[in-house]
Backbone:
């Protein structure tokens, strides 16, 4: 849960103005660890969430598979600049499975 900046500032100001930390925890309903983190922090803004930037564009991968259906995973990975296991996972999420038949 992300707390608003104004709440963070109120809690830190309460402690800075002489309020006890235990009282701040009880009044503002935040954990003691959170309170200490805010007091010792220079910047009270919340850290960015854990969203990662994806290297593989799913639409581009789908078009690449349509244009080059016989490429191997390692060749496709080289074209996208990622590891072959990343291509494998992306293809799996797209529902693209290549089954080879024996001749």
Residues:
């Amino acid at each position: 849960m992300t707390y608003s900046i104004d709440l963070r500032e109120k809690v830190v100001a309460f402690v800075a103005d002489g309020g006890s930390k235990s009282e701040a925890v009880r009044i503002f309903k935040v954990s003691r660890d959170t309170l200490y983190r805010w007091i010792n922090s220079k910047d009270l803004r919340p850290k960015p969430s854990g969203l990662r930037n994806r290297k593989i564009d799913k639409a581009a991968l789908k078009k690449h598979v349509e244009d080059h259906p016989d490429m191997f995973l390692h060749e496709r990975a080289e074209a996208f600049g990622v590891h072959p296991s990343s291509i494998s996972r992306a293809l799996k999420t797209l529902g693209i499975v290549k089954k080879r038949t024996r001749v």
